[in-house]
């Protein structure tokens, strides 16, 4: 499949999966919109799940390349919280720069996601692990409080950031750029109040 054709298929499928949810998404509608026949589609991919995984993998890789997340160890030191701010601000800028990223987020948070093992679960697990490592680094350098079990803090951080992101993605249409900036600032302040030492 050529690069342009693959991109068209991925973006069309991302819109469908994000809008309808995995279970209700129409593979026929995606195939039709891309100008493919069923036989040509099945020569490329063997199932709806394979297409879903392709979409998640391609869009997540594009996002990862554009975002260039720093290694958790690079957060160590006095600039820990400033590094957190920089990453979240950059993440917000990147996520709002391309509709495919909002579609990916909708797919990751889909309550009707595939029952089988899939790439969305892998992406969320990788994000959780990265966040846990960043919390661990914060504990080690004294930027994160140490009166709670570290495993609990890692779970809290991931759940809190996921909730912030999911709510923001679901409400992007109602938030102006100025409101989005204020929202990100408020979310960061809430995160710091919960995790920074008193």
Account of the protein in words:
The longest helix has 22 residues, at 119-140. With 198 residues, this protein is mainly α. The protein has helices at residues 3-20, 27-33, 38-44, 48-67, 80-95, 99-108, 119-140, 150-170, 177-195. It starts with a helix and ends with a helix. Helix 4 packs across helix 6. The model has no long low-confidence stretch (mean pLDDT 93).
Could you give a short description of this structure?
This protein has 198 residues and is mainly α. It is built from 9 helices and no strands.
Keywords:
198 residues, mainly alpha, 9 helices, 0% strand
Radius of gyration: 19 Å
The poorly predicted ranges are: none
Query: What share of the residues does DSSP label as strand, in percent?
Result: under 5%
The string of secondary-structure elements, in order, is HHHHHHHHH
Structural class: mainly alpha
Straight-line distance between termini: 56 Å
List the helices and strands and how they pair.
Layout lengths: L2 H18 L6 H7 L4 H7 L3 H20 L12 H16 L3 H10 L10 H22 L9 H21 L6 H19 L3
């Amino acid at each position: 499949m050529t690069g342009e054709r693959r991109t068209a298929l991925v973006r069309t499928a991302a819109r469908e999966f994000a809008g309808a949810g995995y279970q209700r998404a129409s593979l026929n509608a995606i195939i039709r919109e891309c100008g493919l026949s069923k036989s040509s589609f099945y020569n490329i991919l063997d199932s709806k799940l394979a297409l879903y995984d392709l979409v998640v993998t391609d869009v997540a890789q594009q996002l990862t390349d554009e975002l260039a997340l720093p290694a958790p160890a690079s957060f160590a030191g006095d600039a820990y919280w400033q590094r957190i701010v920089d990453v979240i601000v950059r993440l917000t800028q990147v996520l709002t720069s391309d509709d495919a990223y909002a579609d990916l987020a909708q797919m990751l948070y889909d309550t009707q996601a595939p029952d089988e093992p899939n790439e969305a679960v892998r992406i969320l697990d990788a994000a959780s692990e990265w966040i846990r490592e960043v919390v661990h680094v914060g504990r080690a350098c004294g930027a994160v409080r140490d009166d709670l079990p570290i495993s609990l803090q890692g779970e809290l951080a991931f759940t809190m950031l996921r909730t912030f992101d999911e709510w923001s993605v679901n409400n992007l249409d109602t938030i102006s750029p100025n409101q989005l900036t204020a929202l990100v600032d408020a979310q960061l302040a809430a995160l710091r109040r919960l995790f920074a030492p008193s």
